[in-house]
Amino acid sequence: MSDTGVDAPLAHPLLKNDYASEWMGIEVLKVDDGHATITMKLRKEMLNGFGIAHGGMIFAFADTAFALSCNPHTGSVDTMTVAAGVDINFLKPGIPGRTLTAVANRRQQSGRSGIYDIQIFQSVPDSEDEVLAEFRGRSRTIPRPS
Protein backbone atom coordinates (compact mmCIF):
# COMPACT_ATOMS: atom_id res chain seq x y z
CA MET A 1 0.00 0.00 0.00
CA SER A 2 1.10 3.52 -0.65
CA ASP A 3 1.33 6.29 1.95
CA THR A 4 -2.27 7.21 1.13
CA GLY A 5 -3.50 3.75 2.13
CA VAL A 6 -4.45 2.89 -1.46
CA ASP A 7 -2.84 0.06 -3.39
CA ALA A 8 -0.49 1.44 -6.03
CA PRO A 9 -1.03 0.24 -9.61
CA LEU A 10 1.02 -2.79 -10.56
CA ALA A 11 4.15 -2.00 -12.51
CA HIS A 12 6.04 -3.82 -15.24
CA PRO A 13 9.54 -2.93 -16.47
CA LEU A 14 8.18 -2.45 -20.01
CA LEU A 15 6.04 0.45 -18.84
CA LYS A 16 8.95 2.47 -17.46
CA ASN A 17 9.50 4.32 -20.74
CA ASP A 18 6.25 3.40 -22.52
CA TYR A 19 4.90 6.89 -23.12
CA ALA A 20 2.12 5.64 -25.42
CA SER A 21 0.65 3.41 -22.70
CA GLU A 22 1.04 6.25 -20.20
CA TRP A 23 -0.83 8.64 -22.52
CA MET A 24 -3.56 6.02 -23.00
CA GLY A 25 -4.00 5.81 -19.22
CA ILE A 26 -3.42 2.07 -19.09
CA GLU A 27 -3.46 0.49 -15.64
CA VAL A 28 -2.13 -3.00 -14.95
CA LEU A 29 -4.50 -5.08 -12.83
CA LYS A 30 -2.66 -8.38 -12.99
CA VAL A 31 0.51 -9.69 -14.57
CA ASP A 32 2.27 -13.00 -14.25
CA ASP A 33 3.97 -15.58 -16.47
CA GLY A 34 2.00 -15.70 -19.71
CA HIS A 35 -0.87 -13.52 -18.50
CA ALA A 36 -1.78 -9.85 -18.18
CA THR A 37 -4.98 -7.94 -17.42
CA ILE A 38 -5.07 -4.19 -18.07
CA THR A 39 -7.72 -1.44 -18.21
CA MET A 40 -8.19 2.03 -19.63
CA LYS A 41 -11.03 4.51 -20.08
CA LEU A 42 -12.01 5.31 -23.66
CA ARG A 43 -11.50 9.08 -23.98
CA LYS A 44 -12.61 11.47 -26.74
CA GLU A 45 -9.01 11.75 -28.02
CA MET A 46 -9.24 8.02 -28.85
CA LEU A 47 -12.26 8.31 -31.16
CA ASN A 48 -12.49 8.28 -34.93
CA GLY A 49 -14.68 10.45 -37.17
CA PHE A 50 -17.71 8.27 -36.42
CA GLY A 51 -17.45 9.04 -32.70
CA ILE A 52 -16.45 5.48 -31.75
CA ALA A 53 -13.12 4.00 -30.71
CA HIS A 54 -10.42 4.34 -33.35
CA GLY A 55 -9.30 0.84 -34.34
CA GLY A 56 -5.68 1.85 -33.80
CA MET A 57 -6.42 2.65 -30.15
CA ILE A 58 -8.02 -0.75 -29.58
CA PHE A 59 -5.08 -2.39 -31.35
CA ALA A 60 -2.52 -0.46 -29.27
CA PHE A 61 -4.39 -1.34 -26.06
CA ALA A 62 -4.41 -5.06 -26.93
CA ASP A 63 -0.78 -4.88 -28.03
CA THR A 64 0.23 -3.57 -24.61
CA ALA A 65 -1.50 -6.52 -22.91
CA PHE A 66 0.26 -8.82 -25.38
CA ALA A 67 3.68 -7.34 -24.59
CA LEU A 68 3.13 -7.53 -20.83
CA SER A 69 2.08 -11.18 -21.01
CA CYS A 70 5.05 -12.13 -23.24
CA ASN A 71 7.80 -10.56 -21.15
CA PRO A 72 8.64 -11.50 -17.57
CA HIS A 73 7.51 -8.87 -15.07
CA THR A 74 10.83 -9.40 -13.32
CA GLY A 75 12.58 -8.14 -16.47
CA SER A 76 15.33 -9.71 -18.55
CA VAL A 77 18.70 -8.21 -19.41
CA ASP A 78 19.48 -10.71 -22.19
CA THR A 79 16.28 -11.14 -24.21
CA MET A 80 13.02 -9.46 -25.14
CA THR A 81 9.88 -10.91 -26.62
CA VAL A 82 8.33 -8.99 -29.50
CA ALA A 83 5.44 -9.44 -31.92
CA ALA A 84 6.17 -11.59 -34.95
CA GLY A 85 2.64 -11.00 -36.24
CA VAL A 86 -0.87 -10.29 -35.03
CA ASP A 87 -4.49 -10.44 -36.14
CA ILE A 88 -7.37 -8.48 -34.67
CA ASN A 89 -11.10 -8.82 -35.17
CA PHE A 90 -13.32 -5.92 -34.17
CA LEU A 91 -16.72 -7.19 -33.01
CA LYS A 92 -18.50 -4.12 -31.59
CA PRO A 93 -17.95 -0.36 -31.60
CA GLY A 94 -16.07 1.10 -28.64
CA ILE A 95 -18.28 3.63 -26.89
CA PRO A 96 -16.74 6.82 -25.42
CA GLY A 97 -16.50 6.93 -21.65
CA ARG A 98 -16.58 3.17 -21.20
CA THR A 99 -13.85 1.24 -19.45
CA LEU A 100 -11.96 -1.25 -21.59
CA THR A 101 -10.29 -4.35 -20.17
CA ALA A 102 -7.81 -6.53 -22.05
CA VAL A 103 -7.11 -10.06 -20.84
CA ALA A 104 -4.05 -11.69 -22.40
CA ASN A 105 -3.20 -15.38 -22.07
CA ARG A 106 -0.43 -17.50 -23.53
CA ARG A 107 -1.90 -20.40 -25.49
CA GLN A 108 1.30 -22.11 -26.62
CA GLN A 109 5.05 -21.71 -26.21
CA SER A 110 7.62 -23.64 -28.22
CA GLY A 111 11.24 -22.56 -27.99
CA ARG A 112 11.44 -18.87 -28.85
CA SER A 113 7.93 -18.70 -30.40
CA GLY A 114 4.58 -18.27 -28.69
CA ILE A 115 0.90 -17.75 -29.39
CA TYR A 116 -1.21 -15.42 -27.22
CA ASP A 117 -4.92 -14.63 -27.24
CA ILE A 118 -6.13 -11.28 -25.99
CA GLN A 119 -9.81 -10.51 -25.43
CA ILE A 120 -10.81 -6.88 -25.19
CA PHE A 121 -13.99 -6.15 -23.22
CA GLN A 122 -15.90 -2.92 -22.68
CA SER A 123 -18.08 -2.07 -19.74
CA VAL A 124 -21.82 -1.85 -20.33
CA PRO A 125 -23.96 0.11 -17.85
CA ASP A 126 -26.19 -2.19 -15.77
CA SER A 127 -25.03 -5.28 -17.66
CA GLU A 128 -22.12 -7.66 -18.11
CA ASP A 129 -19.05 -6.50 -19.98
CA GLU A 130 -19.15 -7.30 -23.70
CA VAL A 131 -16.40 -8.53 -25.99
CA LEU A 132 -15.26 -5.62 -28.14
CA ALA A 133 -12.45 -7.36 -30.05
CA GLU A 134 -10.31 -10.50 -30.24
CA PHE A 135 -6.55 -10.23 -30.84
CA ARG A 136 -4.17 -13.12 -31.53
CA GLY A 137 -0.46 -12.44 -31.26
CA ARG A 138 2.49 -14.52 -32.38
CA SER A 139 5.63 -13.78 -30.39
CA ARG A 140 9.33 -14.28 -30.88
CA THR A 141 12.00 -14.02 -28.18
CA ILE A 142 15.14 -12.36 -29.47
CA PRO A 143 18.42 -11.09 -27.98
CA ARG A 144 18.34 -7.53 -26.68
CA PRO A 145 20.27 -5.14 -28.92
CA SER A 146 23.61 -4.13 -27.46
Morphology call:
globular
Largest sheet, strands/sense/barrel: 6 strands, antiparallel
Count of beta strands = 6
Distance between the termini: 36 Å
* CATH architecture heading: Roll
> How confident overall, as mean pLDDT?
91
CATH superfamily, by name, is Hotdog Thioesterase
Strand content: 35-45%
Organism: Paeniglutamicibacter psychrophenolicus
InterPro entries: Acyl-CoA_thioesterase_PaaI, HotDog_dom_sf, PaaD, PAAI_dom, Thioestr_dom
Pfam families: 4HBT
Keywords: Hydrolase
Structure in words:
The structure is a single chain. The protein has 146 residues and is of the alpha+beta class. It has one domain: Thiol Ester Dehydrase, Chain A, CATH 3.10.129.10. The chain contains two helices and six strands; from the N terminus they run αββαββββ. A six-stranded antiparallel β-sheet has the order 1-2-4-5-6-3, with helices on one face. The longest helix has 16 residues. It is globular. The N and C termini lie far apart (36 Å). The N terminus is likely disordered.
Q: What would you say about this model in short?
A:
The chain contains two helices and six strands.
How are the elements arranged and paired?
Layout: H1 19-24, E1 27-32, E2 35-41, H2 55-70, E3 79-90, E4 99-110, E5 113-122, E6 130-143
Antiparallel strand pairs: 1-2, 2-4, 3-6, 4-5, 5-6
From the structure above, extract its key features:
single chain, 146 residues, alpha+beta, Thiol Ester Dehydrase, Chain A, six-stranded antiparallel beta sheet, 2 helices, 15% helix, globular, disordered N terminus
